[in-house]
């Protein structure tokens, strides 16, 4: 199974998810893509070996993944303070991968009905959803 984590800004969420996946699903193939170099660098500190940065890696890798994990903004063009390009959002949205989206109410994207729970709990629930 190929798990792809996409994150932007500082990559804090992506790093935490990558650490959890490496611990809980060590047999999975794990890749990370940052929308910027800082996010990618931070996610690489989790120990993941397969990493890239930017729009084209998302466009190429999203269709190849079995599971895509990231903040909900990865499917919304111009989210994460403009870091998610329309091409990135389209690639993630059109991918046949199972998408596990972490619902963060930031950057003017609000998800009604989302509990206000700590990030650690969101990540625990995310890992439980991986097939």
Note down, in words, how this protein is organized.
- The chain is α/β, with parallel strands linked by helices and 131 residues long.
- The protein has one domain: TPP-binding domain (Rossmann fold).
- 40% of the residues lie in helices and 20% in strands.
- It is built from six helices and five strands; from the N terminus they run βαβαβαβααβα.
- The chain has a five-stranded parallel β-sheet, with helices on both faces.
- α1 (12-24) links the parallel β1 and β2 (29-34).
- α3 (55-61) packs parallel to α5 (86-94).
Class per helix and strand makeup: alpha/beta
Mean pLDDT over the residues: 93
* CATH class category: Alpha Beta
Radius of gyration: 13 Å
Which CATH architecture? 3-Layer(aba) Sandwich
Biggest β-sheet, characterized? 5 strands, parallel
> How many distinct helices?
6
The tally of domains stands at: 1
- Strand order of the main beta sheet, please? 3-2-1-4-5
What portion of residues belong to β-strands? 15-25%
CATH topology: Rossmann fold
Distance between the termini: 9 Å
Q: Regions with pLDDT < 50 over 5+ consecutive residues?
A: none
List keywords for this structure.
6 helices; Rossmann fold; 131 residues; five-stranded parallel β-sheet; single chain
């Amino acid at each position: 199974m190929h798990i792809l984590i996409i994150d932007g800004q500082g990559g804090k969420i992506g790093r935490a998810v990558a650490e959890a996946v490496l611990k809980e699903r060590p047999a999975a193939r794990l890749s990370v893509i940052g929308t910027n170099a800082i996010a990618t660098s931070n996610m690489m500190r989790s120990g993941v070996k397969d990493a890239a940065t930017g729009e084209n890696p998302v466009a190429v890798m999203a269709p190849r993944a079995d599971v895509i994990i990231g903040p909900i903004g990865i499917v919304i063009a111009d989210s994460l303070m403009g870091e998610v390009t329309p091409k990135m959002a389209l690639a993630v949205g059109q991918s046949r991968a199972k998408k596990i989206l972490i619902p963060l109410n930031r950057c003017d994207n609000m998800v009604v009905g989302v509990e206000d729970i700590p990030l650690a709990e969101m990540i625990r629930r995310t890992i439980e959803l991986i097939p």
